[in-house]
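We treat protein structure as text, and this decision shapes the records that our systems exchange. The tokens are whole numbers drawn from a learned vocabulary of local backbone shapes. One such record is reproduced below, unchanged from the form in which we store it:
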Amino acid sequence: MTMTPLKSDFLEKMRQQFDNAPYPRTPLEEFPKNPKTLYIHSLVTAYYRRNQKVVTPAGKLILDAGCGTGYKSLELAIANPGAKIVGIDLSPTSVDLARKRLQYHNIENVEFHAIAMEDLPSLGMQFDYINNDEVLYLLPDPIAGLKAMKGVLKPDGIIRTNFHSSVQRVIYHRAQKLFKQLGFMSGTEPEAEVQLVRETMHCLKEDVFMKRYGWNSNLATSDEAVLANYLLEGDKGWTVLEFFDALDKAGLEMISMVNWREWDLLSLFDNIDELPLSVMLSLSEQSIPEQLHLYELLNPCHRLLDAWCGLPGQTQNYEPIADWSDETWRSATVHLHSHLITDEFRAALKEAVTEAKVFEINRFFRLADVSIAIDSQGASCLLPLLEMPKSINALIDWWRTLRPFNPVTQEPTSEAEAFARVKTLLKPLEEIGYVMIESNL
């Protein structure tokens, strides 16, 4: 497919920028191995987060909207076995590199097109999942970009998109304005401009605000970091409230922040009980967008406002498993997340069981800032899940086989005792995201 005529001078300039400096600059031969990144790129994660239902990626159609040089397209292909990946990007040079990358890794069920976001309807496809990562904040009209993706989304599909936080990102936006005023960001000689930025920052006094708080060793050595922060043409930021407003104007509904565990407002306080009553009452009255906005004002640590969203009416108000009745529990099926089950994970789990050692599940990838240590008997209960999902009742029976009697009383392990033990094991693992528990009621 040939590239359609660009709709504005800005888009033409952006195309030139990424033709001259394709992004990301990840080496062609590098293979994605980070389980946490694959976990995020798996549509299974997003679908479960929305409706507490486990889907299979096989046969799904995934769009990488703004694929760049294709590294994230490769991650999407690895994270979603059996799915077809379609990548689009404004830059023909980037698209050519993306094709070569996927061919190098023998990924066949993929295609790429050098088109603008607004030309998505020309593909004649409807997508189950759209990855729009590190793109939206560069578009001249981000809401139009959201609407374009909405137009090619299946009714129950999910979009992952993100925008730079104007609160966290403020110093880099200042740097971009500074170097823009100095005549940088022409798009024709990016390497030369990177060197000029470094020379300029080197000459600044150490106590100058921008150097003290906006410059670091990574920027001093990585050309890509300078281009993506100091010399990023068209970079924009929103607050959380502006992000929610944009989704609403585009006719989309927030599902969840992608890193939702890291947006817990109450986790910022040492002792909630000591908060003034009026403050506590006010916090409890805040809507979800307002709570997230308070978090970013108090603790602007997130560069990206990273979210899953979809068409209104598709999110079910499911009951958290912490509130499940015994009847709901007994109907359920338990899945280990597929990106947790690596060769290393299998070996470590079996070693913990065999040698009666504590199993630290977050050692394999950390999904939350907590440590979860599972005793060897609890680890034994996870063994059947390595091969396939299991019903709660099957895990109860397995636990009674592992521990047929109480070592203190010598009484046989009752079904109720095994049921309680299995629930105690699984609740924190599901809350963090290592396991998925699907009710069949």
